[in-house]
Design goal:
Number of helices: 11
Bound molecules: ligand BV8, zinc ion
Radius of gyration: 18 Å
CATH superfamily of the largest domain: TPP-binding domain
Number of domains: 2
Strand order of the largest sheet: 3-2-1-7-8-9
CATH class of the largest domain: Alpha Beta
Oligomer: single chain
Helix content: 25-40%
CATH architecture of the largest domain: 3-Layer(aba) Sandwich
Shape: elongated
CATH topology of the largest domain: Rossmann fold
Order of helices and strands: EHHHHHHEHEEEEHEHEEHH
């Protein structure tokens, strides 16, 4: 059986990683989302954007995968599992998932914003979040940026193509921990539904997708995912 997981920030919430839109703890609560996660925000305040991503990069060293990540990784034992994630963390991989496609890039790779050269240089330590850090400069005079996809930027073609294929050929799609408002990622569950593929949503809150999916479970990822495959026959009838 082919299972395609479509995960968002809620997947990492129970690892202690703040989500984007949960206002009291969300990453956006402290910053203007457009300013900090868009290419013109980068052009205007690279030192603010760089500090935010550096902090998120370092924060990943102090968190670990949760039962939800581990459940998805364990599904490899009986199913052909593909993970399409909007997350830029590496928790799916650290839990053991293999076929993981990052639609919005990664906190763990960096490049020059002018010549595109990959940057492998040292990163300044950041024990506590600070408001501004000057990004390193490339030999060509460009600034080093995180390899993430900002608003208004194209998604990586390979990740997108693999994700569309993983959704189109799935027997079931499991959408977990996403507010389903950021496109084109949010279009993937719609693609599955249009092709008659059952879609299960796992989210403690309602989302714009909730009344369109086959089943919407008001549960958290770490509680719902461990037993979910066994529940599929009953859930899908
Ligand atoms: C593109 C960077 C086209 C990485 C992010 C106007 C101007 C410009 C663009 C647009 C525009 N209008 C529309 C667009 C398109 C835009 C878009 O969709 N905007 C939205 C806001 C309407 N999309 C884009 O710009 C994309 N690019 O379209 O390019 C193009 C075409 C041609 C030429 C050039 C370009 C790029 C989109 C990517 C943006 N990058 N981040 C980073 O910093 O991480 S977006 C940001 O939101 C993150 O990447 C995140 O992945 C994404 C989605 O958020 P979620 O993962 O859903 O997280 P959220 O907090 O929202 O929700 C968490 C959910 O979990 C909640 O539902 C909560 O209930 C639940 N939850 C909480 N706890 C748990 C839980 N669930 C389970 N268990 C729990 N324990
Ligand atoms: Zn350069």
């Amino acid at each position: 059986m082919r299972v395609t997981v479509l995960s968002g920030a809620g997947m990492s919430a129970e690892s202690g990683v703040p989500t984007f839109r949960d206002v009291e703890t969300g990453l956006w609560a402290k910053v203007d989302p457009y300013e900090i996660s868009s290419s013109d925000g980068w052009r205007r305040h690279p030192e603010k954007v760089w500090a935010w991503y550096l902090w998120r990069h370092y924060m990943m060293k102090s968190v670990a995968p949760n039962d939800g990540h581990r459940a998805v990784a364990a599904w490899h034992d009986g199913a052909d599992v593909h993970v399409v994630t909007q997350n830029v963390d590496d928790l799916h991989e650290r839990a053991g998932s293999r076929q993981v496609y990052h639609l919005h890039g990664s906190l763990f790779s960096f490049r020059c914003d002018r010549c595109g050269l990959a940057y492998h240089g040292a990163l300044p330590a950041m024990p506590e979040p600070v408001d501004t850090v000057e990004p390193p400069m490339c030999a060509c005079g460009g600034l080093i940026r995180p390899d993430v996809v900002w608003f208004g930027e194209q998604l990586p073609t390979a990740a997108w193509d693999r994700s569309v294929e993983a959704v189109s050929r799935a027997d079931v799609a499991i959408v977990v921990g996403t507010s389903s408002i950021v496109y084109p990622a949010a279009g993937l569950p719609e693609l599955a539904l249009a092709e008659g593929i059952p879609v299960i949503e796992v989210n403690p809150e309602e989302t714009p997708l909730s009344d369109r999916v086959t089943v919407s479970l008001r549960e958290t990822s770490a509680t719902a995912l461990p037993g979910l495959l066994q529940r599929l026959p009953a859930l899908l009838g």
